[in-house]
Amino acid sequence: MATKSLKNQSSADHSLLATPLYHRVYTALRQKLMDGTHAQGEPLPGEPTLALQYGVSRVTVRRALAQLKAEGLVRRKPGAGTFASKPAGLKLAPRENLGSWLDPVLAAADGTGARDLAIGRVKAPARVALALALRPLTVVLRIERVRTRKGLPFIHTVIYIPESHAAFFENVKLDARTTTAVLEQSGVPIATVDQVISATACDGASARALGIAVGAPLILVKRVLRDDSDTPVEYFESVYLPDHCEYRQSLRRMPNGQGADGAHWAPLG
Question: Between vectors from CA 242 to CA 106 and to CA 64, what angle results, nearest 5°?
Fold first, then answer.
């Protein structure tokens, strides 16, 4: 077990090192600019402070700031410093709530759409077979998609459908529809969803789909959807750009630990 853990840690470290230093600083600063941590017109810390804060050289900080300036997210005044800005016409998009299993079901009215990258039958990898309660290497339908907002990709998803339901997707044009919607419209009721949210480093496939660097940080969401007989009918693996998503949940205080498992707080709704 220890050897496996060390191997996994080594792989994660390698992915992190694959990301240029300036891009890590750029990503961190961009997040703060997009979420309002640095309000419009507010001065950013100076280059020496940022270099110390992120453990990099001033040259690296300068390159990160140059990329932010090119995007119109900062403006630089000689002798005065760097200030948070907002590109003309930019309206910061609302973040998606990862607490809802429906979060890739985004309305076209919100400026979102979807593009299919690949659809075909494959032999299920071990993790997919386990999630769908199938034997290893069982043939499944694999659908790779990217979801966009105003033409820019922000979610990369790979979906696996058991062969028993694959026929529902033949001669179907998904467009902005979700695979879940196709299943339900075909008479497959979705009764329960298991969801796991974690962090991951961007791999090559997601880098190409999202137009970002390999090793960049992403939010990873895995879902297993089951019908009313508790049979798995769909398995998702989605990665999200962090500055487009957040996790939100409302809780109610429970008297004397009367929540589930004696908890003092219970989710609303």
Answer: 135
Q: Which tens digits make up the pLDDT trace of 225-241?
A: 999 999 999 999 999 88
The β-bridge partners of 177 are none
Residues 6+ apart with CB under 8 A from 21: 56, 60
Could you report the per-residue pLDDT of 190-204, keeping only the tens digit for each?
Answer: 899 888 888 888 888
Q: What is the CATH number of domain 2-84?
A: 1.10.10.10
Comparing 65 with 263, the larger pLDDT belongs to 65
Q: What share of the chain is helix, strand, coil (3-state, %, to 5)?
A: 35, 30, 35
Amino acid at position 205, single letter: A
Q: Rounded to an integer, what distance in angstroms lies between the CA atom of residue 117 and that of residue 158? A: 10
Region(s) of the chain under CATH 3.40.1410.10: 96-246
Enclosing H/E stretch for 9: helix 2-17
pTM for this prediction:
0.64
